[in-house]
Amino acid sequence: MTENHDVVVLAVEGDITRYPSEVIVNAANETLLGGGGVDGAIHRAAGPELLEACRSLHGAKTGESKMTDAFGITTAKKIVHTVGPIYGRHRGEEPALLAACYENSIALAVRHGLSTIAFAAISTGVYGYPREPATEIAVREVKAHQGKLERVIFCCFGADMAALYRDVTARSA
Q1: Is 15 a catalytic residue?
Q2: Is the pTM of this model over 0.85?
Q3: Which of 61, 128, 140, 161 could form a disulfide with 87 if both were Cys (CB 3.0 to 4.6 A apart)?
Q4: DSSP bridge pairs for 27
């Protein structure tokens, strides 16, 4: 996709494993072998093949993103696994590391010719990143990649988080 256009950005409440998108982004831990929250839900929905594929990736560092097939998740083609920062553990580098999660995830999708991507709210659960600053980083990174994607979905667990994404997206327009 070479033409310059505004990306369509949606914020929805729902299960990322059921929302149609070419790519879904998993808020993974460094092992990439599954865990709680959205990570566990994605692994359960994709099935045991995902665990085997993730084992072959040998983990990821904070800010990195790696891609697998979606396996049993029929609404997506690929899963990008990205490791968000644990808030307060990266000596002030949390904003840059969180931005790298979005940038690297988008770059992987584009490299594979995919133009629709659904993000979980990276690092805002058990990793403790404050929701509003995390949302502002997410929206800023998506807007920085205008022309590379057709559609970005922020798939949120809870109406309050979806409302926050809608508000931040509207403010950044």
Answers
A1: no
A2: yes
A3: 128
A4: 82
